[in-house]
Amino acid sequence: MEHFLFFISSLSLLSLIYLLSKIIKNESRSNPPGPLGLPFIGNLHQIDQSSFHTSLWQLSKTYGPIISLRFGFVPTIVVSSATLAKEVLKTQDAIFCSRPPLIGNQKFSYDGLDVAFSPYNEKWREMRKIFTTHLVSPYMIQSSRYIREDEVSRAMDKIKTLALSSKNVNLSKIAKSVTSTIMMRVSFGKRYQDEEERKKVLQLLNKLQETIMNLYVSDIWPGLPFVSLVDRFMGKMNMLEECFQGFDMFYQQLIDEHLNPPNIKSHKEKEDIIDILLRVMKDKLFSLTHKHIKAMLMNVLVAGIDISAAIVIWSMTLLMKNPKVMKKAQEEVRIAIGNKGKVDEDDLSSLTYMKAVIKETMRLYPPSPLLLRETLKDTTLHGYKIKEKTVVHLNAFAIGRDLEVWANPNDFLPERFLGSDIDFKGNDFELIPFGAGRRICPGVLMGVVMVELLLANLLYLYDWGLSNDIRKEDIDLDALPGITMLKRNELCLLARVYF
């Protein structure tokens, strides 16, 4: 009898093991391919957090255009081809259009009150409508033209002073100074004469990049008891709270100034973004609060300052490393503008080659290298089952280097865009630096005109060179970790006045 019971028990155990192995095998077949992870941590040990997008790109070379990963308890897929990006961002956009509720994103979006970071829901659709209708409309872009032209002109004067004294020009600082001052004037209605005051805002933005990219234990093992205490013990929550409070106090002060017009100094601009949002709140067309306004300002500053500055600096970096392309771009601008002495926004439409330079720059160094999504329900992609609440990374960096789409993808060749209809407005999925579909960056047009105006004037007014001890091969292409791909080391050049 004992032998019989042992036999039955053994048979049952073997059957259970067989059934579990079949379930696991079938499950793995239904998931996209990917590297084998470890218990509890998943694939965390296989990713370089300081260069997340390039780590994922290298994995795609081994496992293909769709990869399955697990970061702690969080199921994740990575999409690295234009064909699958189209499926995600167009065909199944309604399923892939949400955002995961990450700790940093939730904090800076005031718990999902913004456009960039909040999950997809009715509240998000309402905020998106406000953003596109009131803040980045064609009228708003045109009405702020004088600000962009004024700030670019001031920057060119600053460069001229440095050029005449043969001093190095820190283009990274100048680009960020221009974009930040433009966005502050558009948003807050005043020009920050005090350099220290403006620097405080830029320091907060730099800190924001760092805190959002922090690896929070609560994001990796959500729902695990006491896991938030680990983030607090490591000091991450204090850093996050300190940065958030800095922004919150800054925004509240600005809102208070706008609610009490006599407190606003005489150099107040025309109606600015805070004015518009307060008017919308007063008219009760939408259920806006001060928290909504602060969340929207966060989006405007992060996108308008960092992204635009990054594109200009990567463009100038690549032009310096490719002198023939630089010469061709300068010749186009100088022939088109003649002896006028400056480039204004009416001239930009004729600068076809320069626009190709910008597209090629964004192909190689997209300002947002990873586009973050989360699935709203179960679906199928490329024959694989994708579950609800799966985190999705669309690797714009890898897509820009896809051998199936781009010839010689590692070469800087703006000519590939001449005579091409490929654009970055969300309809061509081989070039998606600003995303596509419902979550495409709503401020694309405002950001791009700022980039074009600044770059055109840099090319028109100055010839650019390197210090005697530096060769073009020495210019690095390293990027900082962050939601925006910023150049790690500042670009410092010598300028010679052309006009």
UniProtKB/TrEMBL annotation:
Subcellular locations according to the entry: Membrane
Membrane topology: Single-pass membrane protein
GO CC terms, sorted: membrane
Pfam families: p450 (PF00067)
Any GO MF annotation of the entry: heme binding
PROSITE patterns tied to this protein: CYTOCHROME_P450
Species: Deinandra increscens subsp. villosa
Gene Ontology BP, a term: sesquiterpene biosynthetic process
Signal peptide: 1-21
Pathway connected to this protein: Secondary metabolite biosynthesis; terpenoid biosynthesis
Main localisation: membrane
Keywords, comma-separated and alphabetical: Heme, Iron, Membrane, Metal-binding, Monooxygenase, Oxidoreductase, Signal, Transmembrane, Transmembrane helix
TM regions (residue ranges): 296-319, 440-462
Chain sites annotated for binding heme: C441
Cofactor(s) essential for the protein: heme
Protein name stated in the entry: Cytochrome P450
UniProt similarity note: Belongs to the cytochrome P450 family.
Coiled-coil ranges from the UniProt annotation: none
Entry-linked InterPro entries: Cyt_P450, Cyt_P450_CS, Cyt_P450_E_grp-I, Cyt_P450_sf
